[in-house]
Amino acid sequence: MKKPRYGPLILAIIIFLALLFTPGSVQHALISNKKVNQAATSLDPNMFQGIALQQKAMDDKKYLPIYGSSELLRLDPFHPSNYFKVNPDGFTPFLVGRGGMQSLVHFLNFASMSNDLKNRKIVFILSPQWFAQQGLDRKHFDPNFSKLQAYDFVFNKNIDPSLKKRAARRLLQFKFIRKDKNLAYLLKGIGYSNQTNKLKLLGEKAYGEFDYRVLMWRDTIKSFSVHPHHPNVDPSLKNLSWKQLRHRGDLMGEKDSTSNTYGINNHYWKKIKPKYSHLKGYRKHERYYHSPEYGDLQLVLDLLKEKHAKAMFISVPENGRWYDYAGVPKKTRQYYYARVRKQVEKAGFPVADFSSHEYDKYFLKDTMHLGWKGWVYVDQAIKKFYDSPNGKL
């Protein structure tokens, strides 16, 4: 009877562990510059929830990261990714955002980039809808949550302990995170260290480190499958003045929203029209006075300030005509605009505040998303910010 041969199995285990604990710099090197360039307009969740592609982009100063949510998907010719292809200014927008990606999601993202944020120019687009009374809910957080980034946050020793404590306690407010026993215990060790067993915490860290390494390799492999959106460029926008561009935005908006008086594009209005009469006042109870989102935004601001990032925040207005019809009081909206601007400026960052454009037709493409002329104003603000040596407006 032949004796079992364990040599190949042992060799396979050794190779697996060697790969698993290969330094991140090796995984970093596996990702080509071409793949990073494709990722810039991919709007791919694998990239958002990963680290590898974003870190590689951070290493290349030609990329200007733009963080936001669903407005980034509105890729008309005036969108920064398309406009700056026609009128290059020395940078390529790198888009990070989709629906439901609010401040807490971006905080974890920034935490995983924390060593690369110093003096890095970035753009962050704020949406009023984030600041509803409930704030970020599971419906929007769960599909955008990155366990990899959460582990990176846990093991990151270069973030102020008091900031880590606040963030860990906030994350533990979500039931779906508490259900992950390992991650929850590690977060509890940061947020409530007096309530954890040191020996158990040591064991959970060892397991978490292993899981973290597996997720890092998975992220690297998934990075190879990221593909860009097809560009929607309009060569006729080349060398036009900002005034001319705004006029072009007006013309395009007028052409694309002939079915209604709210400046909402026809395709979107087609969804609203059947229930239009029932929507009058449907958001009359909506308020922006008290929301966990202000605290989540403060986490972002404190981290960016700690890491000496050069960030510009963009305050997007709501569609005034539509929100009047929907019943959201104007004073509620004005409260939000003023509060969020004060909060960001207090942290030392500039704000491109477009709240005065609530009733500016074709500034938004629908009830809440930038489009047409709105992107022209944003392009102008981005160019001014990028060209400024100190990252000021």
Automatic annotation (TrEMBL):
Keywords: Cell membrane, Membrane. It comes from the Bacteria. It holds the Pfam family DltD. Pathway: Cell wall biogenesis; lipoteichoic acid biosynthesis. InterPro entries: DltD, LTA_DltD. The keyword Transcription does not apply. The keyword tRNA processing does not apply. Belongs to the DltD family. This is Protein DltD.
